[in-house]
Design a protein that fits this description.
Blueprint lengths: L1 H14 L4 E7 L10 H9 L3 E9 L6 E14 L13 E7 L4 E10 L5 E4 L6 E4 L4 E4 L2 E12 L4 H30 L1
Antiparallel strand pairs: 1-9, 2-3, 2-9, 3-4, 4-5, 5-6, 7-8
Length: about 190
């Protein structure tokens, strides 16, 4: 997973160097940081592009049987029992699935599975090919293993205003000089 994140950064930087900010919570990294709802929500609120890596788990003896990546577009949480916990059924995530290009909505919740992760019902009950020889394996749990955010750094509004004012002043100066030259050449 760390290679995928690093590969994405190298790709973005090779196209448009030094204009993108990055953030991540990665359970595969060193140190291992499990993605949190607060991190995902804050990154989305800041206008960042956020991708999450899902891990599919089968029966206890199968362990991790596959995975998928989604681009998050929103989070919604209503703490119905007012306990401050992200309980099953209280929160949803909206996303674009790059496999289909279609938007979707699924549950997101805290689970104690595998030491405590954000879980989702994405893929639950479905199956993936796993094992040797390959055979269908039923997805019994899906967790969010990593989250990466990135976006171009945009100038502050005051900077854009100063740039626009400078360009307007430059345009006015060049325009008056051009007009003076036309008047002089006409006489």
């Amino acid at each position: 997973m760390a290679d995928i994140i690093r590969g994405k950064q190298l790709y973005v930087e090779s196209r448009v160097p030094r204009v993108t900010t990055y953030g991540q919570q990665n359970s595969f990294g060193t140190p291992s940081v499990k993605p949190t709802f607060a991190f995902l929500l804050n990154e989305l609120r800041r206008g960042e592009d956020v991708e999450v890596t899902l891990g599919y788990f089968g029966a206890i003896t199968q362990g991790r049987i596959g995975g998928h990546v989604l681009t998050l577009t929103g989070l919604k949480w209503t703490d119905e029992d007012m306990n401050g916990n992200l309980d099953f059924g209280e929160a949803t995530m909206t996303f674009i699935d790059p496999a289909t290009g279609q938007p979707g909505t699924k549950l997101i919740y805290f689970t104690f599975f595998n030491g405590g992760y954000l879980g989702t019902d994405y893929g639950m009950g479905g199956s993936v090919s796993c094992g040797n020889p390959p055979a269908p394996c039923r997805i019994q749990a899906t967790i969010i293993e990593a989250a990466v955010s990135e976006s171009p750094v945009l100038p502050a509004p005051a900077t854009l205003l100063m740039l626009a004012s400078g360009l307007a002043g430059l345009g006015l100066r060049c325009g008056t000089r051009w007009l003076r030259q036309r008047i002089v050449s006409a006489s």
